[in-house]
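Dear support,

I submitted the protein below through the web form. The confirmation email said the job was done, but the results page showed an empty box. After a refresh the structure appeared. I'm attaching both so you can tell me whether what I see now is the final result or a partial one.
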Amino acid sequence: MGEHAEEKETADQETRRKVDWRAGSGRAAGILASVVRWVGLIFAAILVLHVVFVIGEANPDNGIVSFVRGWADGLLLGFKDLFMPEDAKLRVLINYGIAAVFWMVVTGILAKIIRRVGGSA
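What the results page shows now:
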């Protein structure tokens, strides 16, 4: 009876040793990379929505418009006065558009790096 218990302990230890931690880290890296991509997509969508509101002459006192403007101004980083054409709508389109593309490119690159470092393909 004691031999049977020892065999069971040995089998349990072998099962524990066969856990593939790299697969778990690969899945975690894949999830993290997906979250990073979604954050970039949401940031870009907020910037594009602001451009649509400005070009469409949305009411600036509206709660949704002011909420989006506040977030868009925060996400603009250093692109606010990158280009200064005379037309205010064109200025918003160019500068906020470049910021949206920036967020998509940067988060895409970051997601790829996370996947490679994490071992996820």
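Response: this is the final, complete result; the empty box was a page-load delay. The helical segments are 2-17, 21-55, 63-75, 88-118.
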